[in-house]
Structures are given as C-alpha cells and as structure tokens.
C-alpha cells in the first residue's frame, strides 16, 4: 500500500457500507411509479429512490441523488430513511462527515426497533463516535441486530469473538462466524476474511487465498474490496504485479465518489504514472476530491501539486 489512512475511518468505511436492507432490483415501470410517489411527498418512495441511486448497492450509482432523496425521506421522520441518512453523515457521502449528526439520526430511528440501526449504533459504541466507548454495549447491539435478521451483523459478531471485544475471546467461533458471513455473500465479511488470510491472523498466511476472496467481494462492487485487489496488483501480493490492473480497480472504487482512499490512490497513480499515463492535472483533481473528505494526506498532496502548477 502507498497510502496511510486513519484506522478509525477504515473501520467505519469497511463496516457500514452494505447496511441498506440488501441488494434489490427495480423494473422501469416500478421506477416510474416510485418516482411519481416520491415527487408527491411519499416518504417510503423517497427512501426507495435513495436506495435506487445508492453509491454501493444502487441500480444507478449517484451519491448526490441518493443523498437528496434519503434526506427528504428522513426529513419526514421515516425510520429507514433516518437510518440511511445517518450512514451518509457517518461516511461523508454527499455531505461533510459529521459523527454527531449521524448518531443523532441513529437514535431517532432506534425508536422503530430496526435491526440495521442497532448494527450502526454498535459501530458508534465500539469506536467512540460521539458516544463513550462501550465494547459490551456494541457487542449486545450487534447480537440484537443479528437476531432481528441483519445478516451483516454476523461479520461484526464474529469480529468481536475473534478479538474479545465486549465478550470473552473465542477465536474458533469468531473465525467460524466470519466464514459464514463470507459464505452468505456479505462483502464486508468476505473482505475481513481476506484480511485474515493476508495477515496470517488465526490461520496460516495465504496471499493467494486472500486475493481470491478480495476478488469475490470486489465483484460485488464493494469499494474496500476493490481497493484491496488494487493493492495486491500494485505490490504483486497473491497475484502477478500489474500496475494497469491496480489502476483499473482503484478507479472503479473511486468512481463511486464515496471512498477518500480510492480517490487518493487514483491521484497517486496519475502523479506517478502507475498503470496510467502520468497526468498531474488529473492527479490534483483526485487529490482535491479526497481532501474535501478531510483526508490529511490528500490535503498535503494538493498543496504540493498546486505549488508545482503555479
């Protein structure tokens, strides 16, 4: 890897991404019907449009449109809209990252006893995001969310058992749950399992297996997995080094315009000419986009390249 990134931000981006009540499909006729209802103020239809444009699971990925409709839904007090809007503030999708606002929205939505809200509040308590760190509370929330059918929480419960977070450590059970999450097709679980093989954590280190698992998650469009695959191609870890392929996966992640690390990495590729023709103007453009998401390394790079262009 050639970037340095806050551990807390990596964790948040890695965990929350797919808590949008699953992937879905929508016919053109259904879309027109929902659009009409949304434009006439129907909060659930506005929520569905937010999902339709969601930058990770959407049929058409447009973070600005997704935020707009999700905001409209949440503004009417629709609980699922409140939950998803909280995620947008937590990740800085279409809006400046604001942990306080995210937590407030999650607590508003919690009144409806929605499983994914419990999952997201668990993340906040695990990491101390505008609440006091409480590992046991986080584990309880993850467990409750899982019991209520939030399959994404399976990866988090496994993570807690693996590292003894809020519960007595049980590495065997933790690894079993994470593998189950990966088998269920949960991209965050697949990516975490890839990390386990990459780091040789509780299993024998296997770079090729890590790359294979990352690739499965990346095929689902999960931006963190796309970055991991890009890293493997860049360094030749678990796969033959290929800078063009590294750039291909970085740009796929960056095109979602939600992951500051992806934007930064593409900037690096353009600056260094890694897998793409060197272009300092494009490099600066991507560094600026990452800087707008408060990535310090990107702010520094933006300053450096701006001086060179003056």
CATH topology (fold) name of the domain at 7-98: Serine Threonine Protein Phosphatase 5, Tetratricopeptide repeat
What is the CATH superfamily of the domain at 7-98? Tetratricopeptide repeat domain
CATH classification, class level of the domain at 7-98: Mainly Alpha
Describe the largest sheet. none
What portion of the residues fall into strands of 2 or more residues? under 5%
Rg = 20 Å
Number of helices: 17
E-strand count: 0
- Following the backbone from N to C, one meets helices and strands in this order, namely HHHHHHHHHHHHHHHHH
Distance between the termini: 30 Å
CATH architecture of the domain at 7-98: Alpha Horseshoe
Provide keyphrases for this structure.
about 300 residues, mainly alpha, Serine Threonine Protein Phosphatase 5, Tetratricopeptide repeat, disordered N terminus
Structural features, described:
With 310 residues, the protein is mainly α. Among the domains are: 7-98, Tetratricopeptide repeat domain (Serine Threonine Protein Phosphatase 5, Tetratricopeptide repeat, Alpha Horseshoe); 259-310, no CATH class. Helix content is 67%, strand content 0%. The chain is built from 17 helices and no strands. It has helices at residues 7-16, 28-39, 43-52, 63-75, 79-91, 99-110, 115-127, 135-147, 153-163, 171-183, 187-199, 207-218, 223-235, 243-254, 260-272, 280-291, 296-309. Helix 3 packs antiparallel against helix 4, helix 4 crosses helix 5 (79-91) and helix 10 (171-183) crosses helix 11. It is globular. It starts with 6 loop residues before the first helix and ends with a helix. The model is unreliable at 3-15 and 17-23 (pLDDT under 50).
């Amino acid at each position: 890897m050639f970037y340095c990134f806050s551990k807390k931000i990596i964790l948040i981006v890695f965990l929350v991404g797919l808590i949008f009540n699953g992937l879905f499909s929508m016919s053109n006729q259904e879309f027109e019907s929902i659009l009409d209802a949304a434009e006439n103020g129907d909060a659930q239809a506005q929520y569905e449009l937010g999902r339709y444009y969601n930058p990770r699971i959407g049929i058409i990925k447009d973070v600005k449109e997704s935020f707009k409709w999700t905001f409209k839904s949440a503004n009417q007090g629709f609980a699922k809209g409140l939950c998803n809007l909280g995620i947008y503030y937590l990740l800085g999708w279409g809006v400046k990252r604001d942990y306080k606002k995210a937590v407030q929205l999650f607590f508003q939505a919690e009144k409806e006893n929605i499983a994914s809200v419990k999952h997201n509040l668990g993340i906040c308590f695990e990491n101390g995001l505008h609440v006091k760190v409480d590992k046991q509370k986080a584990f309880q929330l993850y467990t409750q969310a899982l019991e209520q059918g939030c399959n994404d929480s399976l990866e988090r419960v496994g993570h807690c058992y693996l590292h003894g977070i809020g519960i007595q450590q049980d590495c065997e059970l933790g690894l079993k749950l994470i593998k189950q999450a990966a088998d269920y097709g949960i991209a965050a679980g697949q990516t975490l399992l890839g990390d386990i093989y990459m780091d040789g954590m509780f299993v024998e280190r296997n770079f090729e297996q890590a790359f294979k698992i990352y690739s499965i998650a990346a095929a689902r469009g999960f931006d963190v997995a796309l970055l991991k695959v890009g890293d493997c191609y860049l360094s030749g870890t678990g796969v033959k080094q290929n800078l063009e392929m590294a750039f291909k996966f970085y740009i796929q992640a960056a095109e979602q315009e939600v992951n500051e690390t992806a934007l930064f990495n593409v900037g690096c590729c353009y600056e260094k000419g890694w897998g793409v023709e060197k272009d300092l103007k494009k490099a600066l453009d991507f560094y600026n986009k990452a800087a707008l998401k408060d990535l310090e390394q990107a702010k520094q790079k933006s300053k450096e390249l701006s001086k060179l262009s003056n």
